[in-house]
Amino acid sequence: MSDQKKFMFVNRKAPYGTIYALESLEVVLITAAFDQDVSLAFLDDGVYQLKKGMQTKGIETKNFSPTYRALEDYDVEKLYVEKEAMEARGLNEDDFIVGVTVLSRAEMGKLMDEQDVVLSF
Amino acid sequence: MASIEVGGKSYETDEEGYLVNLADWNAEVADYIAKTENIDMTEQHWEVINFLREYFDEYQIAPAVRVLTKAIGKKLGAEKGNSEYLYGLFPYGPGKQACKIAGLPKPTGCV
Amino acid sequence: MLHIVNKSPLTSGTLESCLNTMVDGGDVLLIEDAVYAATAGNAFESKLTAAMGRCKVHVLMPDLEARGLGDRLIAGVASVDYAGFVGLTVSNKNCQSWL
User: Fold this and answer.
1) For C3-44, how does the pLDDT look when each residue is reduced to its tens digit (9 = 90+)?
2) Closest Cα of chain A to B80: distance in Å?
3) Contact yes or no for C32 and A16 at CB 8 A
4) Is the Cβ of B60 closer than 8 Å to some Cβ of chain A?
5) Which phi and psi (to 5°) does residue B77 adopt?
6) Domains in chain B, please, with CATH?
7) What are the C-alpha distances in Å from C61 to residues C31, C72, C73?
8) Which of C4, C69, C74, C99 to mutate to test binding with chain A, by most A CBs within 10 Å of its CB?
9) Fold adopted by C2-98
10) Which of A44, A68, A76, C42 could be joined to A12 by an S-S link, Cβ 3.0–4.6 Å?
11) Rounded to the nearest 5 degrees, what angle is found at the Cα of C81, between the Cα atoms of C79 and C87?
12) Taking CB atoms and an 8 Å cutoff, what residues of chain A touch B64?
């Protein structure tokens, strides 16, 4: 497929405090319908989006974290987490609701550089 | 705000007829919405509706048609996991129509 | 005095500004994305625990639970619910929100 482009969604915001995480997820689901090469990158506070065990009843907000587990059905299987960001937040791979690939900041930068289109959230 | 009247009770809907509150849904409401869509609910229709409800419960989204078709194929067999079968049941689109009857929001990305 | 912070300490300088500015003996309330400051192992932890020697730090528990971190609260940080939030605004003579 020569017309297939590499899309990367760069997620850098914590969930709930702002609308960015949810907006990104919705655009990912829409983009997935167009059969492109989609990657999701989680940097800085964005790594918090994937934390397991969210209980949002108390803040009367929809918990959208289960939707990350549906990404596989949408053929979105490339999820990358920045190692330095994860460690600075006291998290490890077992804390995430889905399987991810952990990359160093340098590797992440290289991957970002290889993309045709980068969408920033 | 629009609403529908079923069994003496009023249920809030959006301007396209989708239920506003997920918790309002029940079989009677589903039957009523199906009628407004000119669909006679059969066991095959219910199978898809129940599948959608379960999918939403687990992932908090109504799946896109392509995803629904694939997932139905996995769960109910290839003879049901194809668009001919699903459009046969829901002529105006399994995403749009079936989600409405299932009391779910319109699938993300569906216009 | 009550100081309210709602930004993550790892992407915003507001919590640091707050801690650098406030006089000893005040109350700090972490809400929304600021609750990440009160989770074990985060890079701001040492700065927060240092501040706890001279002020009282509270965290809004529904915000911490929403983020899946209700079980990671740093020892010594007080958890409050919405009623506790109101209580803090009442028991303090004034309040600064570090937006």
Assistant:
1) 999 999 999 999 999 999 999 999 999 999 999 999 999 999
2) 17
3) yes
4) yes
5) 105, 155
6) 2-101 (1.10.10.370)
7) 8, 11, 9
8) C69
9) Hypothetical Protein Ychn; Chain: A, (3.40.1260)
10) A44
11) 95
12) 29, 32-33, 74
